[in-house]
Amino acid sequence: MKSARFIFNFDSEKEAKIIAETLHPEIKHNIPKTNVEISLSGCKFSLHIEANDLSSLRAACNSYLRWINTALNVKKTV
What is the DSSP secondary structure assignment for residue 61, as one 8-state letter? Predict the structure, then answer.
C-alpha cells in the first residue's frame, strides 16, 4: 500500500477546523481504492492518504489538495 501525509500549519485553530469541516463530506464519499484520515491538533491539520497503487494515490492527493486550496481561496474572498 502506498501512502502520503500532508501537515498544514494554520494561523488559528478556527482556520484549521474550517478546512477539516470542509473536507468532511468528501471523506464520507471515498475515492475508490483509497483510505483517507484527517486529524486536528491545535493549529495543525493533518491529511493522511493511503491507496492500493501509485496512480490512485496521486489522484487522491490531487483531489484533496485542490479541495483544500479551493476552501482557502473562498475564505480569502469572503
Answer: H
